[in-house]
Amino acid sequence: MQMTAFGKVYVTTKDKVFQPSNPFRHATELTRILRDYHSTDDVNLEKTILCLMTDGGPDHRVTYETVKTSLIQLFMQLDLDMLIAIRTAPNNSWVNPAERCMSLLNLCLQHCALDRKEIRPDFETKIRHKSSLNAIRNIAKVSPALKTAFGESMKPVIENVNDRFRRMKLKNVPFTVYKGISDEIIDDQLSIVPISTQGDADETVFNPTANSKDFRECKALQEFIKMHCSSTHYAFQIMKCREDPCRYCCINPWRTDEQRVEKLSFLPCPIPDESEQVYHSFEEASTLNLFSFNMTYYKTNFLEKKVDDSKRPSAKNSSDFDDFAVEFDRKNRDILKSQKIRDIIMCGECNKPRVIYSAKKLSDEQESLLNRMKEEGNFECGDSFPEDCGFTTKRCLSCTAEVEVNYYGASLRGIRVTCCIFCGNQDDLLVDTDPYIEKLYESFSVVRPICSTCRENGQEAKT
Ligand SMILES: [Zn+2]
Ligand SMILES: [Zn+2]
Ligand SMILES: [Zn+2]
């Protein structure tokens, strides 16, 4: 694609401790920008279709129920007819045009001192040796005044950073800066989802700290997703109903003109060419008619959930590792064994736990470093850790690889959550009294957990 327009850069600066990024904060802050600059009535988006392209961070993982819910919030707040949210595959943020402003943002932070103002001495003492964000947040739960004081002390830093960003331009268009939005407004904006989906009695589920499981159990929301959304590994798309509109779509009818609605379809998944090494370009795929914009196709492929995204990069063959990874695991074979297990880290891409190995017991410093990595949520199977950090996972692991048998060993007993060895799923595991599992226990002393979906797909339990 040729980029001719660069668009405008909006930057929101916030305090990472008490205004942490989460999908709902993103949706709310984006709604504010779009209403300020791209709305004629300060509520609805002027355009009726919105496409978002984000990087692969945990707040944008469109397979998470929290992220889906936040996108539905955005869709409803702006009365969109269609929302397409795609994220880049791991290590491919560079293809995202929005990422191009990053170098400019870095540039203007050169030689910028970022020290916050000191707060009350007793508060300073309390947070002095806290190395993770959660540790500080936990103290604030006990003494709420800390949160206010910390916010005050961060103000000059945020002002300072924003002042620098405000002076920047991209292709002569100046940046616009914002400060983080308050928790109350985020709560308030999210409430449109239970109200509009005629939420079941349990509206309390809808708060920014709810987890994916809470949303998965919310019937009205799931019904809305089933009726209006297409969900694949890298894309989540929402569209109003056409024939026979539901309650939401009756109250909020299409704003796009009728002829264009006819032609609308969800964006299909990339389609590999004959070599299976590269994907057809969008233009190629449409001229070759590899997907067609007709209603029958839309119904069978999207509404009935038969989307084939098996060609995505993270589903590539699990034995296809680069030489560095193979060499790394060979060199470290004395560490990558059950006696050296220290902890686990979750893969943000496939949600499977991966085992952390280290020659020695982790020091406090190493533990803080690892905890920060876990908080960031950016780890993906096979990733390398900083060379001198002293701990590692196996490098010859991809997201398609099973959970390591070592995960189920005795060393992780206290911290392990039981999950399916094939897919990492923690729900719907076959119980010991299941006839299939019971039968296996007659001949084997160990049967690894397996979920009902994997079993239905023909997997045999590991013994
Ligand atoms: Zn509808
Ligand atoms: Zn993974
Ligand atoms: Zn499974």
From TrEMBL:
Protein name stated in the entry: Uncharacterized protein
Organism this protein belongs to: Mytilus galloprovincialis
Higher taxonomy: Eukaryota, Metazoa, Spiralia, Lophotrochozoa, Mollusca
